[in-house]
Specification:
The complex is a heterodimer. Chain A has helices at residues 20-58, 80-111, 114-129, 132-158, 187-211, 215-223, 228-239, 241-257, 260-265, 272-276, 286-293, 300-332; strands at 2-4, 10-12, 68-71, 74-77, 170-171, 174-175. By secondary structure, chain A is mainly α. By secondary structure, chain B is mainly α. The chains are: A mainly alpha, B mainly alpha.
């Protein structure tokens, strides 16, 4: 199939037609790919559909009401306290997980001897493979016995810091000293366990980005007499900023949706005043509420309200994760480097 | 006085510095810091305050060690190197913090769940076993069958869909593929409880399905799908483009290229992807609570309106039954967790072995090449000598 264009040169055009089989193959494969799109849309649409009666009943107060007392015909319910509880657990988890993840990722990429690198990476990944349920029982029965002492220590010595306050039932106008039991099943404990669960994800993302730090700049810094810490602070960390932010946000997305571990650990309360004292035996999250409150034969508004809470959780994690994916993708493609 | 300072040139006669040698002063600094810190922590914890529990002890010990190492290094080498040493200690500690819980959890589950190693536990269901009955009265037989069926059905749904999606993402591409890739990432982050709510809202609330193993399998397949898709896509990307081009140049259609060249080349990787997908969902509890509920009685039919059980549900329900930190129910829960953990560990190791199978092949090829190169290097001088 030769052709001559205006300048008289011969341009060879190859025209192929896809066979019917290939057209079929392409359309089958494309529709499989599109199924993800359909599924994500369906999740949003169906949850909205089932949650609609709850939104109609509660109106905007759904986002400001702190009580959760739905009845099959109505009742008062709202996600304000649940969202706060979810955010607090995630916040505790982030405060613990981010520094540890940065440190572990730096250890693997910068300090670890090469023979240790692969086993260590595997061990961290294995932590991610352990089911949430096992974290939950371990947290509620084993870790709790250790953490209550830490909580007590924090309360005794840093009680002036508002989140570390623990108010107990007042006897004769004086707050009774909290017992160890008052520290059990707290937001703090749930946050620690969730931190361990999201740690591998954050570490993996950060490790990948740190490993891509430009070798030339690292060697340059060393040649100028920099210490290893100097190299990390001036080359690796600035280069990996996108990975740190993105990995932390991905971890945050997981932390917000963590269900069973939190449900097994937490002592469910929805009073805002109780929630803000993170060392206290009180707390809740949207996912834990649904898991703990689920029973056979839920109906009417009770069910609709749960669907509405689930939809809010879906929305929040979707926003956090989409933002995180964008940040990570940019840092991977080198968008975060400033030279 | 010359500009050039000759004394500094004489220093060049010193033996070269071996950068890999560990400076004994540094070792002494770290050890000294640790020992002094241990003593100080002991004083703080047991003499000055009434702190108990080794978690708190370890935390204070780590903090004090860090400070002491910085101070000792500062006194010897100044601010810059002190920061370097303190950073090294701190980063090493964080890595230890990341690994310690894994060891702790695995050891705890093994220590408390070893009762699972009894025949009764594997062959009985919970029909005659209440929380007061002895441990041998009941077991996980019904749950194991349920888990196998649910995960099996979830695989049947998500493996073909996931692999085909991955083929789409990698072999066809385009703007839709970019969108799908983004959504797959988003889907992998959907909280598992939301997947359960979705299946409940679509199938159970509309009476299309009872709360059953099949409904649970649909929920799990939603969670498996993104894992399988993304892992398979990464593996397909590793298939050399030359193989595809060779197949197409020989007149193969796109379909035959994918079926006969791309997928067989990536077989080990796809199996790894499937195993990772299974490991992702085998311990999932939240969607099962919503869609499956659980049962005490053996039921092998995932479609029936009679309830079915699965391992995570077994553990969950036993934990909910348990009161206090002792009791048979909790013992059953730990034993169920033990079985679950062994399954997950086995899957994880299988995935690793398959994953490293390929790299080992590659590294042995590299090794062969380097051996060949070395032989060339050693042969040459011998040839020149005579």
């Amino acid at each position: 199939m030769t052709d001559s264009d205006a300048s008289g040169e011969h341009v060879i055009q190859v025209v192929t037609h896809r066979s019917r089989g290939d057209r079929l193959y392409r359309s089958v494969v494309r529709s499989a790919g599109a199924s993800t799109l359909v599924l994500m849309l369906a999740i949003g649409v169906f949850l909205t559909f089932r949650a609609a009666p709850a939104f109609r009943h509660a109106g905007w107060s759904f986002f400001t009401e702190t009580a959760w007392t739905p009845t099959p015909t109505g009742g008062r319910f709202g996600v304000a306290a649940l969202l706060l509880g979810t955010a607090l657990i995630a916040a505790v988890a982030m405060v613990i997980a981010i520094p540890v993840a940065i440190g572990t990722a730096l250890f693997i990429s910068e300090y670890s001897p090469s023979w240790l690198r692969r086993p260590l990476t595997s061990l961290i990944d294995l932590l991610a493979a352990i089911p949430s349920l096992i974290f939950g029982i371990w947290g509620a029965t084993v870790l709790q016995g250790k953490v209550v002492h830490v909580s007590k220590f924090l309360h005794d010595h840093f009680g002036w810091f508002p989140p570390f306050r623990v108010s107990t039932v007042a006897i004769d106008g004086v707050d009774a000293a909290p017992t160890l039991g008052d520290y059990a099943a707290s937001t703090f404990l749930a946050g620690i366990v969730v931190a361990l669960m999201v740690l591998p994800l954050a570490t993996a993302v950060m490790r990948e980005v740190f490993a891509q730090a430009p070798a030339g700049e690292k060697e340059g810094a060393l040649a100028l007499g920099g210490t290893r810490w100097g190299v990390i602070r001036n080359v690796v960390l600035p280069f990996g900023r996108g990975g740190i932010v993105g990995g932390s946000m991905l971890a945050l997305g997981r932390a917000l949706g963590e269900t069973v571990a939190v449900a097994l650990i937490i002592n469910p309360r929805t009073d805002v005043h109780d929630l803000l004292q993170i060392l206290r035996s009180a707390g809740n999250s949207i996912a834990a509420l649904i898991a703990n409150g689920w029973a056979e034969g839920l109906e009417g508004m009770t069910l609709n309200a749960m669907m509405a809470a689930g939809l809010v959780l879906f929305g929040v994690t979707l926003v956090v994760n989409t933002f995180a994916s964008v940040v990570v993708a940019r840092s991977r493609s080198g968008g975060a480097t400033e030279i | 006085m010359s500009v050039l300072d000759l004394t500094s040139i004489e220093e060049l006669d010193r033996p070269p510095i071996d950068i890999r040698r560990v400076d004994p002063d540094v070792v002494r600094t770290y050890l000294g810091g640790a020992v002094a810190s241990f003593a100080a922590t002991w004083l703080i914890c047991f003499q000055l305050t009434s702190m108990s529990g080794w978690v708190g002890f370890t935390a204070i010990f780590a903090l004090v060690t860090l400070i002491l190492v910085w101070v000792l290094a500062y006194l010897q080498w100044g601010r810059v190197l002190a920061a370097d040493h303190a950073a090294r200690v701190l980063i090493g500690m964080t890595a230890a913090i990341a690994v310690a819980p894994l060891v702790w959890i695995v050891a705890t589950v093994a220590a408390r769940g070893w009762h699972a190693l009894s025949i009764a536990f594997w062959t009985k269901d919970l029909r005659f076993a209440g929380p007061q009955d002895p441990f041998d009265a009941g077991g996980v037989a019904h749950s194991i069958v349920g888990t196998l069926e649910v995960v099996g059905i979830a695989m049947l749904i998500s493996v073909p869909l996931g692999v085909t999606s991955a083929v789409f993402l990698n072999e066809i591409g385009g703007s839709l593929a970019r969108l799908v890739r983004m959504l797959t990432d988003a889907m992998s982050a959907v909280p598992s409880i939301v997947a359960g709510l979705f299946v409940f809202a679509v199938f159970i609330q509309s009476d299309m399905l009872p709360q059953s193993g099949f409904a649970a399998a649909i929920a799990l397949s939603l969670l498996m799908l993104p894992t399988i898709t993304r892992t398979t896509e990464v593996v397909l990307r590793l298939v050399p483009g030359g193989l595809r081009e060779a197949s197409l140049a020989l007149g193969g259609s796109e379909w035959r290229t994918t079926r006969n060249v791309v997928l067989p080349t990536a077989r080990a990787g796809i199996v790894t992807a499937v195993i990772l997908g299974i490991a992702r969902v085998i311990g999932e509890t939240a969607p099962l609570i919503l869609t499956m509920l659980g049962a005490q009685i053996f039921n092998a039919n995932p479609f029936s309106t009679d309830k079915q059980d699965a391992l995570p549900l077994f553990v969950w329900n036993q934990v909910k039954l348990a009161t206090g930190s002792e009791g048979v129910a909790l013992q059953r829960a730990w034993s169920g967790a033990f079985v679950l953990m062994v399954l997950v560990l086995a899957l994880f190791v299988a995935a690793r072995l398959l994953g490293t199978g390929r790299t080992r092949q590659r590294s042995s090829r590299r090794h062969e090449r380097s051996m060949r190169a070395r032989r060339v290097r050693t042969v040459h001088p011998e040839k020149e000598r005579p």
